[in-house]
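Troubleshooting: if your tokenizer reports a length mismatch, compare your output against this known-good record of 303 residues.
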Amino acid sequence: MSQSSETQPGFAGQLTGNTKTVRLTIQYFFSTMQRVVFVLGIMALATLCMMFVKPDFADKIIAMSPFDTSLEKQVVLQQQPLANLLPDANAHDGTGHAVQATLVTTKKDADVSPQQSLVTQWLAKRYRVAEDAIDMLVSTSYSIAKDVKIDPLLILSVIAIESRFNPFAESPMGAQGLMQVMSKIHHDKFKSLGGVQAAFNPVANVRVGSHILKDYIARAGSVEGGLKLYVGAADMYSDGGYGSKVLSEYANLKRVSNGKRISIHTSTATEKPIPTQIPEPAVVKIKDNPQQLTVNEHQDNQY
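Known-good structure output:
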């Protein structure tokens, strides 16, 4: 009897000790989890701040995500090439010779300049277009620019502002395609490319639009003036900011091609529309008085 009474307190003490150990273990576990959650929360806030300050950081996070669908887009694009979705622009000119208007495709092992590759990658992210599709459009623009003797980055800047790289874009005024060419007005330039129905073919549209842009720049004597003519604001005091947007995008592409890190969310224009040509002040004659006043001086004298 005495022996059993001596063993019971020992067993109870051991049980109490085990309970305390379990309790301390649970407390330590929850305390550790609280610290982990706190650290993860701080890291999440830091990541959000970094994404806000540097938008390009978000693209890197998305690229690391297992839910990135860029590979799926490439597979779909390989299954159905862009050229199969476009109107045929193969035609014959007046001499009976075939005129080809096909997209310039590039291969992974092709000799493409690093500058062109940087421009392609940046435009694909900025305008949310499959990189293979943008690659064909950029390569085609570079090829046409070489023939027309115009800066390819200027062509791409006009395409970006006009259609955001949508080859099927059409405005209420009838401007069509990548460079929003008025095919009804410039129908003669499409004759050798299959007629005005070729306005939605990217190559035909960029080729005609590039020639028009170059002619307007030569006529105006400056890129700013040429852009004002291109947008149809020749008789207007201002182009509504069109030139500023194109030149802003051109500056972005220029920096990207030079290896600069430019956010894909950067604005295309930070300035107010600037008139490309300031009209000369009108001259007002007062009867026989030889004194001449400008319009502004005449209005000031009225007050």
